[in-house]
What does this fold into?
Amino acid sequence: MTECLQSFSENQTVFDFGIEGFYQKTYCLYDKDQAEKFFARSPPADEIDDLWILKPTTLSQGVGIKIISDRALAKSVVSDAGSTSPYADESYIAQKYILNPVTA
It folds into this structure.
């Protein structure tokens, strides 16, 4: 779903909106370019309010989800997986955790 929404947002010309208004920031970590962008935007020090959800791409119903604020930990999980396909058993996406969704 993330890939489809990102593609739509990048390529659409008819509508005057992107996915930013209704879908939190998401990176497909099996994609080398998106993984580099995610890890490059790391804050100087990991902060507790900078939470991200690591979601395995091949599981559902909350199975295998990790909530992280430590990008180094996320990088080790993703590096250990070493996947370049969303269909591999160890592929992940990283999605920004919404601290208070009612006011977001």
Notes: The chain has one domain: 24-96. Strands lie at 26-28, 52-56, 66-68, 92-96.
